[in-house]
Here is the input.
Amino acid sequence: MNIDLIISADYVDDSKVKDKTAVVIDMLRATSVITTAINNGCSKVIPVVTVEEALKISNNKRCDFILGGERNALKIEGFDCSNSPLEYKKENVYGKNIILTTTNGTKAINKSVKAKNILISALLNAKSVSDRVIDLGNDLVIVNAGTYGEFSIDDFICSGYLIDCIIKKEKDVKLSDIAKTCHYIYLNNKDIIGFIKNADHYKRIKKLNLEKDLDYCCRKDIIDVVPEYINGQIKDYRLFKGNENEKIV
Ligand code: 3SL
Ligand code: MG
Here is the structure.
């Protein structure tokens, strides 16, 4: 298996993801939200790029959806939830459809649609994602959402952990130079919180008094579901069997 990495959503193009498994990572905080919501039993997450798309999908059926996401890390006016994973509790999301729009994370997912499989990872579920990547057996490209088009330390260190989980179990792996660098950085900084504290985005979230989100998003492997994006919607991959072509709403 070849493993490569893209440092931000802005650098994704179809040729880089085609025929591969893409694992999208926005650990602060979009992919932590998605992983948490799916783990807490939501029916599906529909990731969209713009607020307008989110409103259009929910149009006339507003009560069927939870609208979630952020702009500038804050809840969007008229939406139900912000981009805090702690809001996506079982009692709020079980059996519900969530439409999510975030600045970087949902953009990265939508830019990866030409991949063979698209998995959603955070630190919260990285080990389970690594098992699924190995089972699929395709070449892998790890898509970091990044922050506002730029490299982001948080997604990079999370990717390093994912690579570590994969190469502990799969011996026939060839890392690109950037994937090797990413793994090296993780191996030398296993105290994730200690390292992530240097990230601009970590500081931005901290300034908004969202330390609880940061502590939660930095926990490794507390969730074992693997969300997968197929045909506009994200579910636990085991729930897609035979339903891959169903309409998103
Ligand atoms: O950019 C994104 O997709 C968000 O996850 C950013 S934030 O952490 O909610 O600010
Ligand atoms: Mg982020």
User: Anything to note?
Assistant: The longest strand covers residues 2-6.
